[in-house]
Specification:
Elements: H1 2-31, H2 53-57, H3 61-72, E1 75-80, E2 83-88, H4 91-98, E3 104-106, H5 110-116, H6 126-139, H7 142-145, H8 149-163, H9 170-187, H10 191-209, H11 220-248, H12 256-261, H13 269-300, H14 302-326, H15 334-337, H16 341-353, E4 362-364
Antiparallel strand pairs: 1-2, 3-4
Helix pairs in contact: 8-9, 9-10, 9-13, 10-11, 11-13, 13-16
Length: 373
């Protein structure tokens, strides 16, 4: 009985999806003005609405793109996350797109906008985008980071201790580390009270971030949208608590939340919450990816690893000498980070040569032709 019911529900769902696809196609044909059609690149759009999203996430996304590139070349069409799109992979094509801001604008699938929040910086251009960018950068300037260097060192030490005596996935450990640092940079010491709830909500949200945007009970997307509401409630509590403290204290909070709330023109609570979530998403995986590449490159270059180790050990010895003289524990300081020129160059070189993102999105503001396609 239950099996028949599930089969019936699946058939109804499939019919509804097909019906919506047909209606959408008819409306598009009826109301789209006739114009010269530029031929689309080779490829497949997959199933109606679903496209090739299942194929993309049933395997490693890099494998999916590599197989498409091998079959169709460096430019091909596909349909993922509810969006028909053209994928490019050659440096020449990427340069063509990224160097023509008047033809292509940054964009994301609608599902990602719903998940992060429509007020997040990624979904806007113009004055609002410029203001948010300024506020974000202010929270990560040397003046703001200087005071939390000891706290970042403490997070790093705790991360290393948790890895002792076990086999680890470097990227996953780096994601945990960067997430803890991100919470500190965004909320300051306030994050301690809500750390576990923020982590729990974020990890559920992350699982559904690249899922098929079908908001039905049981789907990853539905679970993510549900926990997104809970995350908004937690952030509302944090914002309310910070606002009360700001009224009682004259202390200047230099974290990201303080930067957003201290804006003279004023941001709404929803704008603050959406951008906090957006910054966490933007910073976590990319930073963790850079750190993982650094570990890989250092392992492949023993001489550089030895030099970087010597540079760090010299700082450790100087701290130990200070501790003996002053008889108190010395933590890492902002001044110590200025004694790491080689480490800094390793980071810069990694940023230059490593692939940090698998792919990103751009939307053509008008029909664009590239190499006859």
């Amino acid at each position: 009985m239950e099996l028949n019911f599930l089969n019936s529900m699946f058939c109804i769902f499939a019919f509804v999806v097909f019906f919506l696809f047909v209606i959408n196609s008819l409306i598009t044909k009826l109301f789209t003005p006739n114009r010269r059609k530029i031929p689309l690149p080779p490829g497949s759009l997959g199933w109606p609405y679903i496209g090739e999203t299942f194929q993309l996430y049933s395997q490693n996304p890099n494998v999916f793109f590599a197989s498409k590139q091998k079959r169709f070349g460096s430019i091909f069409k596909t349909h993922i996350l509810g969006c028909p799109c053209v994928m490019i992979s050659s440096p020449e094509a990427a340069k063509f797109v990224l160097s023509r801001a008047h033809l292509f604008k940054p964009t994301f699938p609608v599902s990602k906008e719903r998940m992060l929040g429509k007020e997040a910086i990624f979904f806007h251009q113009g004055d609002y985008h410029a203001k948010l960018r300024k506020l974000v950068l202010r929270a990560f300037m040397p003046e703001a980071i200087r005071s939390i260097v000891p706290d970042i060192e403490s997070i790093a030490k705790d991360s290393l201790k948790s890895c002792q005596g076990r086999l680890i996935n470097t990227f996953q450990e780096m994601k945990t580390f960067t997430f803890n640092v991100a919470l500190l940079s965004i909320f300051g010491k306030d994050e301690i009270l809500y750390r576990e709830d923020l982590k729990r909500c974020y990890y559920i949200l992350e699982k559904g971030y690249n899922s098929m945007p079908i908001n039905l009970p049981g789907t990853l997307f539905h679970k993510s949208m549900k926990v997104r509401k809970e995350l908004a409630q937690i952030l509302a509590k944090i914002i309310s608590t910070r606002r009360q403290r700001m009224q009682l204290e004259e202390e200047d909070h230099k974290d990201l939340l303080g930067s957003f709330m201290g804006d003279k023109e004023g941001l709404t609570d929803q704008q603050i919450a959406d951008n906090v979530i957006g910054v966490i998403f933007a910073a976590r995986d990319t930073t963790a990816s850079v750190l993982t590449w650094i570990v890989k490159y250092l392992g492949e270059n023993p001489s550089v690893l030895q030099a970087v180790t010597a540079e760090q050990e010299a700082i450790i010895r100087s701290k130990e000498e200070e501790e003996e003289e002053e008889e108190e524990e010395k933590v890492l300081s902002w001044a110590d980070t200025k004694k790491m020129p080689l480490t800094c160059r390793v980071i810069q070189e990694t940023l230059r040569v490593a692939s940090i993102l698998s792919f990103t999105f751009r939307e053509a503001v008008e029909d664009v032709e590239y190499q006859g396609q």
